[in-house]
Specification:
The protein has about 120 residues and is mostly helical. Helix content is about 85%, strand content about 0%. Helix 1 runs antiparallel to helix 2 and helix 2 packs antiparallel against helix 3. It is elongated. The chain starts with a helix and ends with a helix.
């Protein structure tokens, strides 16, 4: 049973590393701030969740269940806060006037202008 948990934990860590690599490639390849922010918030969250789950499994095997529980709590905190921070950063960038590349129609700006009239 312990070798199965170790194999699964190693697999989760490898998947997490893959997500981190995809994030790095996306940060270099994507054309503007908003697409880079999207890639970083989604892929980094996924990579961190897989990595923390794999580390929690390995900690559990080492006889440290409290430490693995703390890693799982950290994962829950990450799931709750990362989407909110990504949204707040994108909203702040939009409010200061940072435009996406090749924007056709800015519906958020139109909604904000309609509220001020």
């Amino acid at each position: 049973m312990s070798s199965l948990i170790q194999l699964l934990s190693n697999l989760l860590i490898i998947i997490g590393a893959f997500f981190f690599a995809v994030t790095a490639i996306a940060m270099l390849r994507f054309p503007d701030f908003y697409t880079r922010l999207h890639a970083s918030s989604k892929c980094l969250t996924g990579g961190a969740l897989f990595m923390l789950a794999g580390l929690a499994g390995l900690m559990f095997l080492e006889g440290r269940p409290f430490d693995s529980f703390k890693l799982l709590l950290l994962s829950a905190f990450l799931v709750l806060t990362n989407p909110a921070t990504g949204h707040a950063i994108a909203r702040a960038a939009h409010k200061v006037g940072l435009k996406p590349k090749e924007v056709i129609k800015d519906e958020l700006r139109e909604m904000e202008m309609g509220d001020n009239v």
